[in-house]
Design a protein that fits this description.
Blueprint (H helix, E strand, L loop, with lengths): L13 H10 L8 H13 L4 E5 L2 H11 L7 E5 L4 H8 L4 E5 L21 E7 L8 H11 L2 E5 L7 E2 L2 E2 L6 E5 L12 E5 L5 H8 L5 H5 L19 H12 L1 H18 L1 H5 L12 E2 L5 E4 L3 H13 L15 H6 L1 E2 L4 H9 E4 L7 H16 L1
Parallel strand pairs: 2-3, 2-4, 3-12, 4-5, 5-8
Antiparallel strand pairs: 1-9, 6-7, 6-10, 8-9, 11-13
This protein binds pyridoxal-5'-phosphate (PLP).
Pyridoxal-5'-phosphate binds next to α3 and α4.
Length: 377
């Protein structure tokens, strides 16, 4: 039984919607499907404005422009994240200041953030790892105290919540990903979500390559022209049409993934009790989206052997982020706040198990039986 790590789910409507987009004879961005997707995100994620982008990386780059990051400005973020979280700010001359993570959720440790604030600090970027929310209340309070902008890297967080609020609706700005490896996908894709409405006008300009084209189409100015920095951030209508099919089924997809997640969680409980592994922790008040199922084992050696064992049984489990703070570019462009002990340790111990919509209970049983067999020997 060969079990791949990821298998993007298709709802069956993608083809039809892409054909419709082609029949509309408008494949560039900001057509009907883009507008439908933006409206859906605004309604379901309760943000003031959503702008589709061609990736989460692009949405983070837009956020860095909107936060007006200038050379030497410091941006607080975790080291245990994807490179784009940092790169988007480094491209504006910003300095990532890496803060350690919490051992329970692997999210940035809010208790260690205040010590990282200096008079150069401009923004905080939080990453909702595995679609499980960061503790946003103390983070927003800290940001208010020091007048900092909070950007949620919610790449993994669509359809998750924090104390009843959708992820992506809590910070001033947020970025979503629709990459093939995420819960809702368009191959490559993303969105910028804006909650602080004073960013909306400038966000539209940056999105439209630095022009006031959006205002022109609304009849608010009589010609459109170059007014600010910007770039090409729109996805084509083909991608938006594909995404629309996925967004329509977002609840169904999330529920199916949660079923897989809970099946793993139950089957692995005894291994946790026996002290071999630690299972994911979901704090009170967090509603997650089953983006990931991971285990934490004792150390790097056990992890390497577990992944090898599973691979010998044709089960493709993987490790995840290599921390950024001690990577070549992290050392060159970033700074670290104190020691990042949890980051360094947990990054070595984490194993992600296959998780996709059509994974069957029989396959999950096979996987968890092989995890158990590994620890039994
Ligand atoms: C996937 C991911 C990204 C990048 O998303 P793209 O859409 O591929 O640009 C950024 N941050 C995090 C935390 C991610 O998981």
């Amino acid at each position: 039984m060969l079990i791949r790590f990821n298998k993007p789910y298709s709802t069956g409507n993608e083809h039809q919607y892409m054909t419709l987009a082609m029949q509309n004879h408008k494949l560039s961005g900001d057509g009907d499907f883009t507008k439908k997707c933006c409206r859906w995100l605004e309604q379901h994620l309760q943000c003031r404005k959503a702008l589709l982008t061609h990736s989460c990386t692009a949405a983070l780059e837009m956020a860095a422009m909107l936060a007006d990051i200038r050379p030497g400005d410091e941006v607080i973020m975790p080291s245990y994240t994807f490179v784009s979280t940092a790169n988007a700010f480094v491209m504006r001359g910003g300095i990532p200041v890496f803060v350690d993570i919490r051992p329970d959720t692997l999210n940035i440790d809010e208790a260690k953030m205040e010590a990282a604030i200096t008079d150069r600090t401009k923004a905080i970027v939080v990453v909702h790892y595995a679609g499980v929310a960061c503790d946003m209340d103390p983070i927003m309070a800290l940001a208010a105290k020091y007048s900092l902008i909070v950007i949620e890297d919610a790449a993994q967080g669509i359809m998750s919540g924090y104390k009843g609020r959708p992820l992506g609706s809590v910070g001033h700005l947020a970025a979503l990903s629709f990459h093939d490896t995420k819960n809702i996908t368009s191959g490559e894709g993303g969105a910028l979500l804006i909650n602080d409405s004073h960013f909306i006008d400038r966000a539209e300009i940056i999105w439209e390559k630095g022009t006031n084209r959006s205002r022109f189409f609304r009849g608010q100015v009589d010609k459109y022209t170059w007014v600010d920095i910007g770039s090409s951030f729109l996805p084509s209508e083909l991608n938006a049409a594909y995404l629309w099919a996925q967004l329509e089924c977002a609840s169904k997809i999330t529920q199916a993934r949660l079923n897989v997640w809970h099946e793993y969680h139950e089957r692995l409980q005894s291994l946790e009790r026996a002290g071999h592994i630690r299972r994911p922790v979901i704090p009170d008040g967090c509603a997650h989206n089953a983006h990931m199922y991971y285990l934490l084992v004792q150390n790097l050696d056990v992890r390497t052997r577990l992944i090898d064992h599973l691979q010998s049984k044709e089960i493709y489990a993987v490790f995840h982020y290599v921390p950024l703070h001690n990577s070549p570019a992290g050392l060159q462009y970033g700074k670290q706040q104190g020691e990042l002990k949890q980051t360094e340790h947990l990054a070595d111990c984490l194993v992600r198990l296959p998780l996709w919509v059509e994974l069957t209970n029989a396959e999950i049983q096979y996987i968890t039986d092989e995890v158990r067999a590994f620890f039994d020997h």
